[in-house]
Specification:
54% of the residues lie in helices and 8% in strands. The protein is mainly α. It has a 3-stranded antiparallel sheet with strand order 1-2-3. Strands 5-4-6 form a 3-stranded antiparallel sheet. Helix 3 packs across helix 7 and helix 7 crosses helix 12. The N and C termini lie far apart (41 Å). Bound molecules: iron/sulfur cluster (2 copies). The site of one iron/sulfur cluster has 15 residues, from helix 14.
Amino acid sequence: MSEFIRKHKFLIARRFTQIGIMFLYVSANIWGWKILVGNLSSSKLFEMIPLSDPFATLQIFFAGGLIVFDLLLGALFIILFYAFIGGRGFCSFICPINIITDLANYLRRIFAFDKVGHKLWLSRDVRYYLIALTLIISFIFGVGAFEFISPISMLHRGIIFGMGFGWALVLSIFLFDLFVVKNGWCGHLCPLGGFFSLISQYSFIRVKYNKKKCSECMDCINICPEREVLHMITKKSEYVIDKECILCGRCIEVCNDDALSFNIRDFLKDK
Ligand code: SF4
Ligand code: SF4
């Protein structure tokens, strides 16, 4: 049991924060607890500290909506946290869709879907084009384009206030990831994940690779949802500095050689 916990400590921590945060939002709605009130787009911590999704705020700006001071301040807090500390940790520690896509990825591995059938190739840069498209559509139609159809908001609001048609979209993402493209949604399409990649590219917390300890089993590459970020494996000791790393820690957990660890980035050694 303790070995299981040791090999899944980050996964357990991630599920704990993902479910815990949803619980706090739900408890505010049902029992009136005032710890975390609102939803992932805009909320208040202890009725004092505003927290806003900066991508949603940007969409409101492009749509010509009113950006009130609290919204702006909340977006600034989130940007500062992920830009300097949290990296793309929103995706692995907060976003509820990550639980769905991780499940699809797990089933894909168990049933070896990668080894059968036709493989559809999709560029991992599509998410960055979708950010631009989202802002253009927001500007033209005067609504937050991604917020309007976001499965993240739908799932999150659905859990807090009750689910409508959002289930169909969430199910589509699950099936897309399971049968069509590995890590299809989070690793290729989601503009919010792409946005967090862009703002967190210089964050301090990073995975560090030690080549001297590595036996080149490739378990880390096989488990990583953004496998391209581990391009240095077998080549040289280095930090994972690519912005797409979601800091999930799965590579560290599966490594039996202790060759990977969380570390504070050394900017002087970066290329
Ligand atoms: S990529 Fe998008 S859906 Fe996936 S975990 Fe990140 S924000 Fe959530
Ligand atoms: S490099 Fe490691 S921490 Fe980063 S996304 Fe891949 S498995 Fe997760």
